[in-house]
Design a protein that fits this description.
Elements: H1 15-21, H2 25-29, H3 45-50, E1 57-61, E2 67-73, H4 92-115, H5 125-131, H6 137-154, H7 158-171, H8 176-186, H9 198-205
Antiparallel strand pairs: 1-2
Amino acid sequence: MREFIRPTAVGDVPQTILDIMGWDAEFLKRAGVPTYPCLIDRDHAVAELYGIVNVPTAVWIDEAGRIVRPPEPAGMGDGFRAMNTTTFEMPAEAAADNKRRRRIYVDALRDWIAKGAKSEHLLLPEEVQRRMTSPTRSEALADAHFRVGAHLHRSGRPDAARPHLEEAVRLRPESWSFRRQAIVLSDPALTGQVAATPEYWQAVISLGDGHYYPPIEMRGMPPPFRRARG
């Protein structure tokens, strides 16, 4: 495991990143440090199988292999949309909302770890089914285009890959993972960087009152963040 997977000290993480992700210094100190290999799913196979379209996303799976909470934003909300996209500075109220959501979600996860099947945050099978949906024809076609595009790019044919990656984004615009991957593969210099080009931010802005992160249905979670206008 490479050391850069997780910073070794809180001071290594810029405050702007902490604000965006909803972590504060005290909370970050409590985060566990992985002692196991962290794999990179370069083919997005897990995302395709579980219908994951953004990060961070969490799926709760119990010891018997049952999904007890289907894919949902892991304590994230739309507060980041209030930030300055040049300086990445966050308004205080947006940063506070991000931290509140993250803490509520992590506390719910800890409750499940401690109480198991008795945790109030586990969902009944019928509720899990209600929240999960089968892929539509358009979504399945988007997944196929993405696989072809990724394969062509790995095979050294980026020009041939580009139309397939763009078609995947067109067919499934709600997949921000597709969009970010297409951005990175379009320019090798973006590898390892934040995949947020002007075109990306324009797509976020075009959501208007729509959600970037779907609201999390969980007891205690506040309503979606709305920046004050005017």
